[in-house]
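User: Reviewer 2 asked us to show a designed sequence for the structure in our supplementary figure. I'm pasting the structure tokens here. Could you produce the per-position amino acids so we can include them in the response letter?
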């Protein structure tokens, strides 16, 4: 998660400029997630994640997907247009994420939920066994 925060800070401070627009990369939490009861080894399966863009200045930029051993940390990357006039309307989205099941051990998904009052990362953890 430290890498996630470091990337966010670097991209936030070094906002890029495209045709006069200033853009910043942000990491957004996962609102809800849906995983299968189990995976089958050497197949491709799907998980679903729901997230919210905080306003119309934000757009989906990709999935943050970090893995180590059997654990996967999942969050959403978004671009924020710092020069745009935004409406303060929350936009809810859902994406399907293909998972190539290449390990025989259980998959441990840690869906990033944001930070608590003390600044500590919070996760929803789901374990998916592999058949």
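Assistant: Here is a per-position design you can include in the supplement:
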């Amino acid at each position: 998660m430290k890498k996630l925060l470091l990337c966010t800070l670097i991209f936030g401070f070094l906002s890029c400029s495209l045709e006069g627009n200033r853009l910043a990369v942000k990491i957004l939490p996962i609102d809800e997630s849906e995983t299968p009861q189990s995976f089958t080894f050497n197949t491709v399966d799907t998980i679903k994640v729901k997230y919210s863009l905080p306003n119309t200045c934000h757009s989906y930029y990709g999935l943050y997907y970090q893995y180590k051993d059997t654990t996967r940390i999942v969050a959403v990357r978004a671009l924020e247009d710092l020069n745009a006039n935004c409406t303060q309307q929350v936009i809810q989205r859902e994406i399907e994420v293909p998972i190539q099941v290449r390990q025989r051990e259980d998959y441990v998904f840690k869906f990033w939920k944001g930070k608590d009052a003390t600044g500590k990362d919070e996760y929803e953890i789901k374990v998916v066994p592999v058949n």
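For the response letter, you might also mention the following. Helices lie at 2-13. The mean pLDDT is 89.
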